[in-house]
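From the shared-data thread, chain only:
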Amino acid sequence: MSNKVISNKAKGDAFTQRVHDYLKRKKIDLVREFKVDVGLSSIHKKKHAFDLGSKDRLVECKYYDWTDGDNNPSAKIATLNEAMLFLYTSPSGVIKQVFVRKTGKKGKRKPETFAEYYVRLYKHCIPDDVEFWEFDETNSTAQKM
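Structure, as tokens:
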């Protein structure tokens, strides 16, 4: 009998595929690992591969869950903030979306999903032109936050 452990990368890749399939059903055709120039400098740019993309849409997918115990998910928040920076510095005039996995609700004072938590505390880090979506894997639906 095997207790096969699935890596976080494999979970993230599978989540990205589910989001990709969802967008395909919406007639949005994207490619995996779509590269564009990003950077704060107007002279020095660097290629960044977004999870999904096309010439008119960039998508980042985050398969996050709450940390064990009552710990603050600071590393996940930092990575999500980095994704916001990449989107902020990506070309303008394209649709920019972040899809975060819908989690269970957590919190003693204010039970909320991870996406609700991020939007409540870090909405100042979400660029004006970025759409923030919560993706429900159970029924393959998404809700814009």
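Strands lie at 31-38, 46-54, 57-62, 95-101, 130-136, 141-144.
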